[in-house]
Structures are given as structure tokens and as C-alpha cells.
């Protein structure tokens, strides 16, 4: 062992130097060189830092630098996150996305263009004018639809979600608010009143007939019975015709 090499190292180093830091790492750790000014120091880490990717070899595990436009990468040729100003697409960092794709500034990736999608039109509404469905001949009817898929930045914009058109209806008079209900209530009251009137009349008629009947019965009880007139022929005395 070189006099400057020590085996009693800390921080995951298997061997180290006072001047160069770690020279080799313990098993499963990655060796990476860190620059401090003009000097490079070897360190041993459990995973590679940003901008590096890990490679494993029988004798040593190393952290190698990603490409200049990669912030993190899986291998040198496969980037997983790009640096500012670049967009990730299929493991590569691009300044401009290919045709048919658009740049997503939120994820910094090239994504598919999404066009707007709308549902089917609803049936036409009743013909109205100023919120009413009566009292006019020409009005308007409308139909609507909903947006089921909003577009991305470069997608086709959404169409109109409502349409209106002129319409013609059979003109009819509008009933005043509450008039129909009021008419029904008045008819019901009138019907009840007529029924009550007939009932009162029937009751008066029955009472009058009962009173007449009772009066006749009382008159029959108070008047004396008439005697029969005597037979005039029986009361006449025989006339003496001898003189």
C-alpha cells in the first residue's frame, strides 16, 4: 500500500488519500469525483447525484456525467429530465418538439396535441320570447352541447356550445300569473255555494211541509166533530086532511 493511501477511511471509502479523498469504495457504493476549485476529490455515494448516472463494474461502481443538456439520465444516451430550455422526448433533450407534438412548459416534455371535443347537440328548447312561451307569434329556440375534452395549447379550439334560431308558434293568450288557479278556486267556491243553496232550499221545503202537516193535525184535534143533520121527512107531523 502506498504510504499516502489509508485503509482506515470514513464516509464509505474502502481506501483513501489525504490529498485525493476516496480512492475506492465499499461494495454497492458509487465512486464519483467532485471538483473543488482546481482540485478533484473522490467520494463514495449510495446513488449518483443529479447530472450523473451509475455504471457497475466488477472492480468498481462509478458515476458518469450525463450529456450537457440532461439534468438527470438513466444512461448517457437516455435522459430522464432535461435542463432549462430543453424538452424531453423519448429520452432525448430537444430545443424544439417534432411535428405533431407540442412543448409542455409545465413538465418540460413533448406531448401529443389534444384537440377539443364536444358532445352531441341537445334537442331544441320550446319557442320563447322574453322568457315567455305565449303571447307572441315569432320567437327563438335554443340548443346546447357540452365540452367533453378541452384542447391543449396547439389543439383545435372548442366550437360554440349554444345555438339559437327563429321559430313560429300558434299565437295564444297568456294567462295572468295565478289567474288559472284563481278561476279554479272561484269555480270550486261557486259550486260549493250552489250546493249549499240547494241544500238550504231542500231543508226549508221539508221544514215547511212538516209544519203544515203538524198544523193540520192540531186543527183536527181542536175542532168538534160535526153532527149529522136530522132527516126532514122524519120530523114532519102528519097533516090532518079531514077538515
TrEMBL record:
One BP term from GO: positive regulation of non-canonical Wnt signaling pathway
Main location: secreted
Origin superkingdom: Eukaryota
Domain Spondin-like TSP1 stretches: 116-170
Compositionally biased spans, kind Basic and acidic residues: 175-219
Record keywords: Disulfide bond, Glycoprotein, Heparin-binding, Repeat, Secreted, Sensory transduction, Signal, Wnt signaling pathway
Function comment: Activator of the canonical Wnt signaling pathway by acting as a ligand for LGR4-6 receptors, which acts as a key regulator of angiogenesis. Upon binding to LGR4-6 (LGR4, LGR5 or LGR6), LGR4-6 associate with phosphorylated LRP6 and frizzled receptors that are activated by extracellular Wnt receptors, triggering the canonical Wnt signaling pathway to increase expression of target genes. Also regulates the canonical Wnt/beta-catenin-dependent pathway and non-canonical Wnt signaling by acting as an inhibitor of ZNRF3, an important regulator of the Wnt signaling pathway.
Protein name per the record: R-spondin-3
Originating species: Aptenodytes patagonicus
UniProt lineage: Eukaryota, Metazoa, Chordata, Craniata, Vertebrata
Amino acid at each position: 500500500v502506498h504510504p499516502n493511501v489509508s485503509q482506515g477511511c470514513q464516509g464509505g471509502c474502502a481506501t483513501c488519500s489525504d490529498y485525493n479523498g476516496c480512492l475506492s469504495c465499499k461494495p454497492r457504493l458509487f465512486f464519483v469525483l467532485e471538483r473543488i476549485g482546481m482540485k478533484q476529490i473522490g467520494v463514495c455515494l449510495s446513488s449518483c447525484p443529479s447530472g450523473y448516472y451509475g455504471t457497475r463494474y466488477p472492480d468498481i461502481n462509478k458515476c458518469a456525467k450525463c450529456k450537457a443538456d440532461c439534468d438527470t439520465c438513466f444512461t448517457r444516451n437516455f435522459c430522464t429530465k432535461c435542463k432549462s430550455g430543453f424538452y424531453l422526448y423519448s429520452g432525448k433533450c430537444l430545443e424544439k418538439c417534432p411535428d405533431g407534438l407540442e412543448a409542455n412548459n409545465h413538465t418540460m416534455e413533448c406531448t401529443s396535441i389534444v384537440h377539443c371535443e364536444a358532445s352531441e347537440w341537445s334537442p331544441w328548447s320550446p319557442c320563447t320570447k322574453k322568457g315567455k312561451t305565449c303571447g307572441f307569434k315569432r320567437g327563438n329556440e335554443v340548443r346546447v352541447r357540452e365540452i367533453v375534452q378541452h384542447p391543449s395549447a396547439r389543439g383545435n379550439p372548442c366550437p360554440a356550445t349554444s345555438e339559437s334560431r327563429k321559430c313560429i308558434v300558434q299565437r295564444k293568450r297568456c294567462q295572468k300569473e295565478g289567474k288559472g288557479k284563481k278561476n279554479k278556486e272561484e269555480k270550486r267556491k261557486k259550486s260549493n255555494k250552489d250546493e249549499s243553496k240547494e241544500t238550504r232550499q231542500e231543508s226549508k221545503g221539508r221544514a215547511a211541509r212538516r209544519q203544515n202537516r203538524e198544523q193540520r193535525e192540531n186543527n183536527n184535534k181542536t175542532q168538534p166533530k160535526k153532527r149529522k143533520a136530522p132527516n126532514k121527512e122524519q120530523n114532519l107531523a102528519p097533516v090532518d086532511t079531514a077538515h
